Structure formats: C-alpha cells, structure tokens
Amino acid sequence: MTSETMSVFSPQLAKRFDALAAKYPVKRSALVPMLLYAQDEVGYLSDAVISEIAERIGITELDVRNVASYYSMLRFKPVGKYNVQVCTNISCMLRGGYDVFEKFQDELGIGHKGTTQDGVFSLEEVECIGACCWAPAIQVNYDFHDELTPESVPDVLARYRTQLQNKEKNA
Amino acid sequence: MPRLVSHPDEVKIVTRRFGQGAANIDKYVELGGYEAAKNCLAQGPDWIINEMKASNLRGRGGAGFPTGMKWSFVPKQSAKPKYVLVNGDESEPGTCKDHLIFLHDPHAVIEGTIIAGLAIGSKLGFIYLRGEYRYLLEIMEKAVADAYAKGFLGKNIFGSDTEFQVITQTGAGAYEVGEESALMESLEGKRGVPRIKPPFPAVVGLYGGPTVINNAETIATVPHVITMGGEAFAAVGTPRNGGTRLFGLSGHVERPGVYELPMGYNLKKMIYEVGGGVRGGRKLKAVVPGGSSTPVLLPEEIENLGMDFDQVGKAGSMLGSGGVVVIDDQTCIVEFALRTISFYQHESCGWCIPCREGTDWLKKSLTRFHAGFGVAKDIDNIQYIADNMMGRTFCPLGDAAAMPTLGFVKKFRKEFEAHLDGKPCPYAKHAELAVV
User: Do residue A25 and residue B207 have CB atoms under 8 angstroms apart?
Assistant: First the structure.
C-alpha cells in the first residue's frame, strides 16, 4: 500500500498478515489463509481486499482471483451476519438433513445462497462438514451444531438473534 | 461439542486420551505425552523407520500405504529442505475421526509430526486443517504455541541440538485438496489441482523438496506405535494391517459415533453390536464401508467381512477412510447415488477432462433418472461413463466418483429399473434435489 489510509485491513489484520507472511519459506503460502482471514473481517472478498492482498504478497490480482475462485468458503459477495450452512451430504441426508434445510428455508423465507432482507441470516446448502457421526449437522459461521431436527431449528435461529441483540446493546 | 461414544469391544490406543483434557500440554505430558518423541530423538532415524515398518501401520487417509515404507522412500541426502505435511483436510463424506483427534488430542498430532521429521531428517512440518475446522485450528495453534514454550518445538527440541518447527495452516473449502499433490499446491498458495506423478512427493514435494504426507490419524497414531513398540502394535490388528482404526459409524445406525476397533473387526458386528443395529429396528439395505468413494456392500457381503485393507479389498470395495455409512431398507439407492455423485461433481477441480465431464454427465443422468424421466439405456450409459473415468485422471477423484456409481448400478440394477418410464420414486420424498 502506498499509504496507510488506503488500507482496507484493520491494524490487527495487517499485523496478522505480516506474521503469516514471515512464517513460511515462501510468502505466497500465506495466500489462502489470508483470503479467509480477510473475508472474516470484511465479510467478503471485495475488489479492494483482493487488490491489497495481491500487493502485499507481490502477485497479480488475477493470480489472487484465480486462487480465490477455487475454494468454496471464499466469496465475492457479502452474506448475512450469520451464514447458516446446512450439510445435506449422505450421512446428514440419511438422518434428515434435507428436512432441516427445508425448515431453515421456511423459517427464514429464503433459499440456497439467499440472505434475509435485514441482512442477519444467509442460508446455504453445503457439502460434508466433517460431523457425519453427529448428523444432521450445520455450521453457523464457524460454529457447529450437531444432531439437529426440524423442531430444533427455531431455537438455533433464536439463539443467534439474541446474540446479535446483545452485541448491539453492548456496542 | 461432538458426542463421544464408547463400547466394550473398543481397544483404546489412539483415543485413550480423549475426554481427559489432553489438549492441555501439562495434562498431555502427565499422561505420558512427548516421551515417544524424546525416545525417537535418542534412537535415531533408522530405528524409528524399523519400528514403523514392524508396526504394519498403513495410511489412514484411505489408500492404506505402509507408513514406514513411505518414510523410507525419502532420500537421506537432499539439496533441498525436506518437509512433513500432515493432511487434516478431512472431507470424505462419512468421515469425522480427525475432527475428534484435533479436538481431544492435538499434541499427539504434534508429537507424531516431530517423530516423522526425525525419521526423514526434516526440520519443518505443516499441519493442514480444512477451513471449516476453524475452532479445531485454534486448538491446534494453541497446542503448537505451548509446545514451543516448553521447548518441544524450536531450534533445540527437548534441549538437543536438533531443530524442528511446526506451522499450522487452514484450507478454505475444497475436497480435492485432501489429495496429497493438490494439498501441496494449496499450501503453496495456489489452486488445489493435482500434480502428475512421478515424481512422487517423497522425492519432489512441497516447494520442490522431499516431502512425507500423512493423514492426521496416521500421524496421531505414530507416538503410540513408538510407545508400544512396532511389533506389539502390529499384534493388535490382522496380518499386514497393524493396530486399530477409528471407525466412524454414521447414517441409519442406532448409536452413531467414532469407535476405535482393532483392524479386521467384523463389519456386521460393528453395525449390530457396536452401533446397536439399524435405527428403529429396520432392515439393513446396504453399507458404504469406508467413506463415500468406496463401493457399496450388500448385507450378505458383510457377514464374515473383517474390516482391514486387504479383506475389504477382496470383497470388491475399500476400507478407505473408515467412514461406515449404514443404509436402511427405506432408502432410495438412486437418490443416494445421485447425492454421492452430486458431491463429486461439485468437488471435481476440472483439471482432468474425464473427471470434470464424467461427474457432470453422471449427475445429469442420475438427476433425470431419479426424477422419473430416465430411459432404459441410461442405466448402461451411466455404467459406460463411469467405466471411462476409471484410471484416466491425475488424481483419484475421478475413480472416487466412478467406483461407487458402478457399485450402485451393478448391485441395485433392479432398483434403477424400477425408476424407469415416469414411475415415481418408490421411496424418496425429494424427487428433485436442490442443486448444490
């Protein structure tokens, strides 16, 4: 970056990046984690984020986009504050993963890759998340919720709504 | 927090510290942790590799390659640095064993990595976790930091003049990255597409240096092999299949969970006794024995089937990742086949045409078929497409998609036929699956 003010990274993220870039034998190894950490902070991989990562690593923006487009967790559009990812792969499917997914659709009034109008929730049908023995499982952002039923879906959503209210109160 | 299960038939070697707070380094040391690494430091590389060879430990990622032999392929002298790479990109549907290892015993992974490093003469190891496992990555990062603070990692491990460093790494969502050469690409900051072999990673791997890549379960097993001694570990399993395995029972089973059972444990017993049988007292229709890429088995095929690499191979399937998916008699196999292929279609990296095109056409065919618009020749066509994917790709993803499809068509042809000519699916509620 030519000047501090142009950075889209927070000071913490910039520090994290420097530490990451220094630890590998090759700086570019920091790319995938960096994309994910930047997305965690900014919400998605905006043009500004891609540009800054390219410059910090010393590769082209095209290189960054080429890599970023490969990984399913990386996205180029914003999502809701809580991204509900419902696994419907075989182990979850056999134990009602689709029923859980449908219940989330009904409760939120959105479909696959949709976002609620208030921007609080997004919904996504995802591939195996590695919780097969505790199926059906979902992730809300990075939190796992195991052994769900359609009946437990409203509770999960209520918990995050409360969490958001508390956050806003404290902010 | 994922539920832990237990059964009297379990032989707890790798899981023996689960649920005991061993993510804490002091607790881990109190339970005998890091003694194996210290011993290896004193004994040297040849001794370690001999113990590993004697143990008959075979790769837990799925291929079942003997670990000791893999390590012995790394050249002793190398102009480029050598690396250890731990594959924790666990993403084969039906598999969640590494999840528990990272959660309950992160130091076993670090200790195994150190031992692998000592065996091949490497100074740097990477522990790569799939991106979805963020909370587990944080546990691993804390464990690594604690190991540095104690001097178990760093320039002078355990007060010796030997150096060993560990770096943790996160993925960002990609099944394909679980393939070893794609994993190296990802770690180098690239798209996770596979490399052509040879050269094999033991000779030209990460950053062009000789690299040993092991599954996280394999690595977490290594310290126990050293502690028990290779021969004692081998004695727990069956010939050429040493030790235990973390079997993940999922699907229509009464008590799903990850169980540590000796290699060669009977599959029928695993489902009916360890797992408590088919859920709701229903009848067993089929079993996927080792993760979604392994060909399905029928109830009569599991009667006397011991779960080790050789016996399951002889039965026409694979032990794979140890993810046992139980399917009851109310399940539509066509829908199950479609869900399986949809996953591989989604995850194909597109590098090799037979895989990219094959998975796509299989998904299209099965979607149409399951929706009731299939025609008789589709069945043979599905088989034809799958046959033409086998063995024609850089990495095993093409085979991983084709093999189960061939198994479903071969063993459940009648059920495919029952879907013909607009007949509604006799089982499924979801005639048309949401497109992932």
Answer: yes
Q: Are residues A64 and A117 in the same domain?
A: no
Q: Do A132 and B170 touch (CB under 8 A)?
A: no
pLDDT digits (tens, 9 = 90+) for B360-398: 999 999 998 888 888 889 999 999 999 999 999 999 999
Do A98 and A162 lie in one domain? The reply is yes
Test the A interface: residue of B136, B250, B363 with most A CBs within 10 Å: B250
The domains of chain B, with CATH numbers, are: 25-236 (3.40.50.11540), 244-328 (3.10.20.600), 333-417 (1.20.1440.230)
For residue B252, list chain A residues with Cβ-Cβ distance below 8 A.
Answer: 94-95
Residue A76 falls inside a structural domain: no
- A86 and A30 co-located in one domain: no
Contact B256 A135 (CB under 8 A): yes
The verdict on A7 touching B (C-beta cutoff 8 Å) is no
pLDDT digits 0-9 by tens, B306-346: 999 999 999 999 999 999 999 999 999 999 999 999 999 99
Q: Which two tokens stand for residue B185?
A: 């690409």
